[in-house]
Amino acid sequence: MELTAVHEHVWVIRGAVNMGLVRTQGDGLVAVDTGLDKQAGKTLEKAAKEIGLPLRAIVNTHAHADHFGGNAYLLSRTPVTVYAPEGEAAVIRRPMFEPEYLWQGASPLPQLQNKFLLAQASPVHVEYTPGVPFEVDGTTFLPVALPGHAAAQCGILVHDVCFAADAYFDPPVVDKHGVPYMVDYLATCRSADSLRSVQAAWFVPGHGEPARRPDAVIDYLKQRHEQAFQTVLAACRHPRSLDELLADVCRARNLAPANPGAYVLLRTPIAAYVTAAVGQGRMEIIMDGGKLQFLTIEK
Ligand SMILES: [Zn+2]
Predict the structure, then answer these.
(1) In a designed cystine with 72, which of 12, 120, 176, 273 is the match (CB 3.0 to 4.6 A)?
(2) CA distance 137 to 30
(3) Where are the domains of the chain?
(4) How far is the CA of 61 from the centre of ligand 1 (A)?
(5) In angstroms, what is the span from residue 165 Cα to ligand 1's centroid?
(6) How far is the CA of 108 from the centre of ligand 1 (A)?
């Protein structure tokens, strides 16, 4: 376990998914996200023991399985209060929504019901609102609206540290995914930009290294999204279905999703580019023989 102090009262447990621990005024600890699974919950428990303070609460940033998967274990060990953004809480309470929405609302393929996409359910005791500070055990947490990667994702600003959730990823993470997951292209760009004006001594992304300033990595993320968006617009000079577009982007990025999970995690951002293009009047919809197709409007 790699426990790094980024502030007198704030620690980051570095891993494939970062987790935070915040010391409260009342000498307790608050976890910011709980990782993928029971094992991540155990790691948090061990870290709290090492610091020597009791875990009092969990603050989740968004309802992706790899960010709240440790909730259930921690709740089974100690009575903690769970906080989550009001627009994300429903999925934490009923995690089956995640593989369902990835499979267009249908009962999901068994291959989509793994721990990466389907966490154990957890109660949410308090739903917080972006921009409205809340107090836990005497310490103030400010939720920062960062929609885009998830519909109602929030960052958390506490003790001069900004937990940025998945509003941006480090370049190696971006490159690994090829097209980073998001549900709203324009909101993703706006949220990443809004982080530039956040004053904090440290920024902690959900995946990647804590940094003093995230500006360069934000630039990289936006640039990679913009390139993929342009690939989609160019491919739609001829009518293309979503699956054809996905294949076009895979060719352009040298990607080959190896399983249904990897496929749906790529399909969602491609669909989000299409929604943005149609919304901006840059693309039209063509229905043809049972195919939903998209055509770029040449100006
Ligand atoms: Zn996420």
Answers:
(1) 120
(2) 9
(3) 2-224, 235-296
(4) 9
(5) 7
(6) 19
Dist CA 214 CA 191 (whole Å): 13
Mean pLDDT of 258-274: 97
List the shell of residues around ion ligand 1, using CB closer than 5 Å.
64, 166
Q: Which of 138, 124, 140 is nearest to 61 (CA)?
A: 124
* Residue 1: per-residue pLDDT: 79
pLDDT tens for 84-100 read 999 999 999 999 999 99
**If you search the block for the tokens 């390139």, which residue do you land on?**
227
Structure token pair of residue 204 = 């902690």
Amino acid identity of 294? F
Q: Is the pLDDT of residue 235 over 90?
A: yes
Phi, psi of 91 (to 5 degrees): -75, -35
Q: What is 235-296's CATH number?
A: 1.10.10
CATH topology of domain 2-224: Metallo-beta-lactamase; Chain A (3.60.15)
Q: Which residue has the tokens 């440290």?
A: 202
User: How confident is the model at residue 299, as a pLDDT?
Assistant: 78
